[in-house]
Amino acid sequence: MPAPQLRGAEVELLRLVVERPGIGISDAAKELYLAGTSVSTLVNQLARQGFLARETAPADRRAARLLPTPAAEARLGEWRKRSADLVRRQVSRLDEADRETLLAAVPAPRRLAGTLHEEAERA
């Protein structure tokens, strides 16, 4: 990927803000299981790099809403494309039996992710 290099937590925050534009820092921290101060630091870094914009929340002038910039959406789109291409290439190198095993295994992690998300929502 072109500079600047983004760390995992930065990519995760960008993904969240693209999926939920207007999310606040505390909600983002809860969603990502990070401390609010950690998310604030990430927001500051991503804003300096031109990937996030902050606007004042109408309901609470002390709170900030996070919005992706066009640069963030382009960068995330490129990251997704490259990741998908990498996985596609590697899966194509597997033999038929391994590909079938992977395909059969996909529903279990999806169910696990769903139940983990449901439990996190209740917490």
Protein described:
- With 123 residues, the chain is mainly α.
- The chain is 67% helix and 8% strand.
- It has 6 helices and 2 strands.
- The longest helix is centred in the middle third of the chain and has 23 residues, at 70-92.
Short summary:
The protein has helices at 8-19, 25-32, 36-48, 70-92, 96-105, 107-122; strands at residues 52-56, 64-68. It is mainly alpha-helical. The protein has a two-stranded antiparallel sheet.
- How much strand content do the residues show? 5-15%
Mass-distribution shape:
flat
The number of E-state strands comes to: 2
Specify the helix fraction band. 55-70%
* Topology order in helix (H) and strand (E) letters: HHHEEHHH
Oligomer: single chain
Q: Termini distance?
A: 36 Å
Low-confidence stretches: none
Q: Any idea what the radius of gyration is?
A: 18 Å
Task: Supply the helix-strand structural class.
Answer: mainly alpha
Counted by DSSP, the helix tally is 6
Can you summarize the main beta sheet? 2 strands, antiparallel
Average predicted confidence as pLDDT: 90
How do the strands line up in the largest sheet?
1-2
SSE layout:
Layout: H1 8-19, H2 25-32, H3 36-48, E1 52-56, E2 64-68, H4 70-92, H5 96-105, H6 107-122
Antiparallel strand pairs: 1-2
Features:
single chain; 123 residues; mainly alpha; two-stranded antiparallel sheet; 2 strands; flat
